[in-house]
Model the fold of this input.
Amino acid sequence: MNSFDTLLFPDTNVFIEKFYSLLLFFTPLHFMQVVEHGPGSDTNSDAELFLKRGLCRAHVPAPLGDNREHFLRLIHDVSEKKEYLVAQLSGLTTDSSPAQAGREQLDPKHGIVSSLLQEYGMEHVTTTMDLQLWQARLVLAIAEILDSNQEDLREQLFFFNEDEIAAYRSLQGETDSNEEDLFSELENIKARLEKSRLGGIKKRFDAWVQLLQNQPVPSVKVWLASTRDSADQIFNRYESIGKAHAVPLLKLALPAQIAASGQYMVEQIDAFQLATMPIHRGLVADFERIARTVPYVHDAHKSLLPYGTDWADQWERALDDFFPASSNGRNDITFYLLPDQRIDRLLSLKESSGGAHGDAVHGLLAILDTPQTL
Done:
């Protein structure tokens, strides 16, 4: 099986349909898991299959241990939308609360987070550092809940995109006030969802990094941002330390969706990886070469992709053979180089021992670009 160790961020649940096609190119796909598996874990047959086959690898930087069951009960209550919990925790995942409110939430004696932890039986949280770790867990767990809720809402609003609304209006002619109110409210819902999504990205990414700081970062060749807004968290940090900018290297297509059972999905992944092994190895070798080339010279031929090859064109043709765009759709993966700055060092993360990151001196960042449905 082809190998291109990849770390997905800041999502902590990779076992959803929109991420499955990533496994055609990015394997194994490493991800951070907030809660370790144990009694009462949701059984996801796809997850078990992908983990067993080595397609995905989970990392739990700060296992909950004896507090696991208490934490799961808290998250269950939040997912059930108990109003008092949602209201208390809303400041953790949005940018609407003032700085003072954030400090109060993390007060070890009287803060909101501390009070909730004690209420749910999670004791021995006595320092601000401990509370920051617990807040990071809560932010990421709540983000998963919000992702699920917003995905459900996107599906409900799917038939109300701008083109269809315009077509409906043209057929109806002049609409009455009730219809105008309906369309106006739909647009307001879309705008609020987008504002909420953008508002929580930085907090979600910061929480992800804070939790990841509790163990050496997994040995990977490329970091994969689940959205362009998430990638901006890396770009902003990179540009803040100097005048350099990330350099776009290459764009590859992937299926937008692969409708199949878990077992058949694995069979498709295996078949595609086998057929594209030379292409995959060629692309990976080019990425690794560029990540090691010192000094990096922006306009040097050897610093560009493709580098005297047609790997990208071959990839597109193979993708069309296995997963036609007419039935599987398309998403784009865009690769960027961060000259002279590895991403784990940029984020001050602990490095794996034994030189596991190889000879890379530049950061390699990939971004999943998907069409917006809202």
Remarks:
- Strands lie at 6-9, 29-32, 56-59, 222-225, 247-254, 331-338, 363-369.
- The first helix runs from residue 17 to 20.
- The longest strand covers residues 247-254.
